[in-house]
Model the fold of this input.
Amino acid sequence: MDFVYEDLKDKRICLSATSQGVVTAEIDTTERGGISRILALSAEGKLFSVEKIDNQARLSGKINFKLLYLDEEGKPSGLDYFSDFEERIEDDKIGEFTSLWGEVDIIETESNADDGHVTLSAVCSFSVCGVGEKCFKPLVSSADTENAQGMINLCKITTLSDYNFTLEEEVESGVNIDKVLFFASRVISQKVSPIQGGFKVEGVAVSDVVFTADGKIEHKVIPSSFQEEVEGDGEKLLAKAVIRSSRLVLSGSEDNNLIKTELNCVIRGLVFSCEEKAVITDCFSTTEKVQLSHEVLTQRNFVESRNFREKISAEIPYGEEGTLVATLPDGVRIANLGCEDGRGFIEGVCSINLVFATEEGAKSVFAEIPFSLTLEGDFDGNNLEGEAIVVNISARGRGSVVDIKADLDIRIDEFSTNKQRYIVSALASGEKLEEKAGISVYFASEKDTPWEIAKAMGVGMKELLQINPSLSEGVKEGQKIFIFRERK
Done:
C-alpha cells in the first residue's frame, strides 16, 4: 500500500494571555494653586511596544490621566499627565507565537488629593494575543484502500502595517474662551468592507472639550467620522482604531472662538486569507488490517466584525441645587459578552461624571449606568470579543434626579472554533483479513453512515451501494444491510 503525506502549515490567532496592574501618578499641584475638589478623572492607555522575551511578553506605554478640579481658590482647572508603565505577561504559549500584539484597557480610576498633592491611579487590564503557527504532515493520498476525505481550512495571517490618519473637526464655541480645562477623545472602528486591493474601514470618534468662558464652565461635544482605505492582500480584516495623540487649537473672533480638534489615529489589524486542503480522515482495506494514528487540529477562525448602536438610560439622584454644565463619559467596562440561543448579549457598566455649577462652586457626581443588552443576529454559538464607546449623550435635570440617555456604539468580533481530525500514520500490518463466504447482514442504527457500515462490514463503498442502493438516500433505524460474498 502506498501512503502519501504532505507538509502543511496553518496560522491561527491564539487565545490571549492577560494580567492586571495598577499604574499611579504622584503630582504636586501647589505651584498650580493646589486642589480643593476633584470634579472628573479619566484615563486612557497608550501602548507603544510589545516585545517577546522567551515565554514573556513585555508591554510598554503610558497612561494618560485627564483631571478636572477646583483649585484652593475655587477656580476650575485641568491637568493632563502621562505616567509610564511596563507590564510583563508570562505564558508558555507566548514562546510559540510567531508575532504578537497587545492592548491595555482601563478598568477603573481613582484619585486622592491631600494638601496640594494628588495621587491618580488606574487599574489596567493588559492583554497579549499572538499568531501561532502549526506545522503538520497529514495523510493526503492512499492507494489500494477505501478512503474518507475531509477538508482542512488552512489560514494565512499577515499583520497590517500601521495605517495612520488624522481626524480634524472645527466647531464654533459661541463665546470667548478663557481657558481649556479638559480635552478627551475616544474612537471605535465600526465596519470593514473588502475593496479592490484592500479594505475600507469606517468608524467614529468623539471629543469632549470643557472650558471656561466669563468664569463659567461650558462643555462641547465634537463628533467625527472616518472612512479610510487600507491596503491588504486577503479575504478578511480584523481591525481596530486607536488614538495615538491629540491636539486642540483655538482661533476665530474674540466673541466666537473656533475649537479645532486634531486626532492622530492609527488602524491596526490582521489580514486573513484561507485555502482548503483535502486530507484523508479515515481509511481501511478490504484485504488486510491497517493501523491508523490520528491527531486533531484545533482552529480558531475569525468570522466577521459587527457593529451595533444601542440605547441606554438611567436616573441619577442628585439632592442639591445646581445647573448641569458637563456630562463626561469615563469609559465603558464590558463585564460579560457571549451568545445564547443564537443571539448575542453584552453586559457591563458605563461610567459618567456629571459636573454641576452651584452657588458654592462646581460640584460633581460620579454615576455608573449598568446595561444588559441583546444583540440581534445569528451568532451560532461562536466566541465573541468586542469594545464599546459612548456617543450622543444627553442629560436633563428633573427635580432631585438627572435623566441620562446615551447611545452605545459596540463592535463585536466573532470567532469560531472547530476541530479537524486527520491521519498522521497509516501502517499496513500484512495480516490478511479472514474471508467469509455467504451472506453478511448488518442491522443499522439511525446514527450510522454508509462509510461506517462499509468499514464495519469490510467492503468497499462502491460494492456496498451497488447491493444496497437505498443507502444513498440515508440510513434508517433497524435497516438491514446485506453483503454477498463468495469464497475464492
Remarks:
- The chain has a mean pLDDT of 91.
- The helical segments are 450-457, 461-467.
- The CA atoms of residues 71 and 395 lie 26 Å apart.
- DSSP finds two helices and 23 strands in the chain.
